[in-house]
Design a protein that fits this description.
The structure is a single chain. By secondary structure, this protein is mainly alpha-helical. The chain is built from eleven helices and four strands; from the N terminus they run ααααβββααααβααα. The mean pLDDT is about 85. Keywords: Amino-acid transport, Cell membrane, Membrane, Transmembrane, Transmembrane helix, Transport. Belongs to the binding-protein-dependent transport system permease family. LivHM subfamily. InterPro entries: ABC_transp_permease, BCAA_transport_permease.
Length: about 290
């Protein structure tokens, strides 16, 4: 029971971080129809930015979070201007390759500024590292704090789309870009906001993940793969699906690593993708739209 509770808490916490990465991917995909393959490197850069603000400059963790999110948003908007906007009328493959190129560029910048491939940086814990025992249940304060932060960001993200004018405009553009244009929505700005918002969510996930892991320039690819798996499992056009998919991937990964073998943690995401694509290709919470003629 002790091991199960620890694995479940670890899986839910990690899954919440995967869900945030997946949310960023889904936001961009819903608005533009493109997967941003630079999402993982945006995650990596934001983690290093937070480390620099919190460790090198000695500022508060909240300021590190805000600074990393702001930098992530700016980088996301820049990707729209550099890799998406000039290729708006080009083939989707060209846009995808452009985002891949941006990801390699960001990884190279990360290595130049924060160290080579073999360098790892540790982020100070934001709470006590001593576990709390409630009978047979193990609670780790660090994981609880990260999970609470991830939930708060998800709630704020949902409120943004549900109650703000910009959020509703982004949803309208995602549903029907031509109709949105006809009612006066400037979809070019919405595309920029989509890339910026997706990158900002990934940046927030990176700052929350930083105290639980080591920072290194290649870390973004692993989180991108898990976030992409979560988006596929939940549905590439479903925001709730991204959350469900992230939690599912995190729990399966933790249980597989704990009860089968640690190597299963790396392949569990791919197995989940394969199973979902075989059973429900559109994702668990994604549905085909039916229109009466």
């Amino acid at each position: 029971m002790t091991m199960l509770s620890y694995l479940l808490l670890s899986g839910i916490t990690t899954g919440a971080l995967y869900a945030l990465v997946a949310l960023g991917l889904v936001v961009v995909n819903k608005a533009t129809g493109v997967i941003n393959f630079a999402q993982g490197e945006l995650f990596m850069v934001a983690g290093f930015i937070a480390w620099s603000i919190h460790v090198q400059f000695g500022l508060d963790f909240a300021l590190a979070l805000a600074g990393a999110v702001l930098v992530g948003f700016v980088l996301g908007c820049a990707i729209d201007r550099i890799a998406f906007r000039p290729l708006l009328r080009a083939d989707v493959v060209a846009i995808v390759l452009a985002t891949v190129g941006i990801s390699f560029m960001l990884k190279g910048i990360g290595r130049i500024i924060w160290g080579g491939k073999g360098d790892y940086l540790s982020f100070p814990p934001i709470t006590s590292t001593d576990p709390i025992m409630l009978g047979d249940i193990v609670l780790v304060p660090q994981q609880i704090a990260v999970l609470a932060g991830a939930i708060a960001i998800m709630v704020a993200f949902g409120a943004f789309f549900r109650f703000t004018r910009i959020g509703k405009m982004m949803q309208a553009t995602a549903d029907n870009a031509k109709a949105a244009t006809l009612v006066g929505i400037r979809i070019e700005r919405i595309y920029t906001l989509a890339f910026g918002t997706g990158a900002a969510v990934a940046a927030a996930a990176a700052v929350l993940a930083a105290p639980l892991t080591l920072l290194y320039p290649d870390m973004g690819f692993s989180f991108f793969i898990k976030g992409f798996a979560a988006a596929v499992v939940g549905g590439l056009t479903s925001l709730p699906g991204a959350v469900v998919g992230g939690l599912a991937i995190g729990i399966v990964e933790a249980l597989a690593g704990g009860y089968i073998h640690s190597s299963m943690m790396e392949v569990s995401a791919f197995i989940a993708i394969m199973l979902v694509l075989l059973i429900r290709p559109t994702g668990l919470l994604s549905f085909h739209k039916v229109r009466r003629v």
